[in-house]
Amino acid sequence: MQFSEIIGQGETKNRLIRSVREGKISHAQLFAGAEGVGKLPLAIAYAQYVCCTNRGENDSCGVCPSCVKFGKLAHPDLHFVFPVISSSVSDDFIKEWREIVTEKKYFTYNQWLAKLNAENKQALIYSKESEAVLRKLSMKSYESEYKVMIIWQPERMYHDLGFGNKLLKILEEPPERTLFVLVSENPDALMITIQSRTQRINIPAIAESDLTRCITERYYLSADEANNIARIAGGSYTVAIENIKASDESRENLARFIEIMRLAYSKNVRGIKQWADATAGIGRERQKNFLAYAQRMIRENFMLNFHHSELNYMTNAEQSFAQKFSPFINERNIFDIMEEFALAERHIEQNVNAKMVFFDLSLKFIVLLKR
After folding, report:
1. Whole-structure pTM value
2. Cα separation of 292 and 258, whole Å?
3. Distance in Å from the first CA to the final CA of the chain
4. With bands split at pLDDT 50, 70 and 90, how would you rate the model's confidence at 182?
5. What is the pLDDT of residue 161?
6. Residues 82, 153 contacting (CB under 8 angstroms)
7. Pairing of the two strands 78-81 and 28-32
8. Tens-place pLDDT, residues 77-100
């Protein structure tokens, strides 16, 4: 993967290129940023540039034997660690990993779960992964000056800290000519000691102009359509694509949000119970996605009351419902509503009974929406 394939991020690209050309490659780097801004593609392009045997001023050559192998994610000195299921190790799913990275380049954790046919499970980085990492790093590099280890979503290390502690030891005493790139959406969830031993590079949101240009070219949208989608996406390519495709999950989340707000407002306890039971059956990851979506919708509806369209990031379908619903979200209830949604999200994460969580949450809205 080359830098030229990455959407925007010109300043970050220049910084990474400059570090290589000046010989100032930090052995452990932490690429931190929101979902969909291009952290993983940047990490791979950076590694390819480091290992390229004929690198140019602004990019890897793309044609030398090293670049050709990087293009297939099959370079012997390029290694990956990523969340997997069933206490496995990354190598068990390297085929699926190469496919999704090659096909999509930009993808989400949930899309990775779908690739594993594990939408209702959690993917984690387990302790046994450390054995594979140590084995790979104990070997001499095959072809390149550097061995590169890219760790995607290290915040999903299993809670027993086995992998984290061994990773920390490697970062403290790294093998010679080894480059670690940790790619994280939640860097503050990492062990403080790991954070302190990495050079943090914050990857910003994709500039709206860059995102607009990209989706216009790839999806043949009108200028107005592309501008609106890029604005709503908030600098995330994956969010932009989800909005373009109007995914089934997005439509379901909106329908689920509308239903519970109407049931709560009408004090329909029987309907609330049925809604809670149905929502409890969609799987934990989709439940968390819905709760995150609902928090965004509450924020958007509150901001709509200020009549500043530039502050709102809603689709046409969302705006249609918000025109009548937004007056019910005000300064007297917004903080409590947001807190209840956030609490429910934590409870789902902690495996609290989902039926109880959603039923209790819905009953509270009966009071909160009347404020």
Report:
1. 0.70
2. 15
3. 53
4. very high
5. 60
6. yes
7. unpaired
8. 999 999 999 878 899 999 999 999
172/39 same-domain check: yes
Question: What pLDDT digit, counting tens, does each position of 323-336 carry?
Answer: 999 999 999 999 99
Question: What does the alpha-carbon distance between residue 351 and residue 55 come to, in Å, rounded to a whole number?
Answer: 49
Is residue 104 exposed (0-12), middle (13-18) or buried (19+ Cβ within 10 Å)? middle
Q: Helices 248-265 & 284-304, crossing angle to 10 degrees?
A: 70
- Say whether both 126 and 229 belong to one domain: no
Cβ distance 27 to 70 under 8 Å? no
Question: Which residue type does 100 have?
Answer: I
Same domain for 217 and 186: no
Element (H, E) at 149: strand 147-152
**Continuous segment of H or E residues that includes residue 241:** helix 237-245
Work out the mean pLDDT of the chain and round it to a whole number: 89
Do the beta carbons of residue 205 and residue 236 sit within 8 Å? Answer: yes
Question: How far apart are the C-alpha atoms of 241 and 248, rounded to whole Å?
Answer: 13
Q: Which residues contact 83 (CB under 8 A, 6 or more apart)?
A: 109, 112, 122, 123, 124, 125, 152, 153, 156
Render pLDDT for 259-279 as a digit per residue (tens, 0 to 9).
999 999 999 999 999 999 999
Expressed as residue numbers, the domain containing 312 is 249-368
Q: Which neighbouring-strand residues pair with 26?
A: none
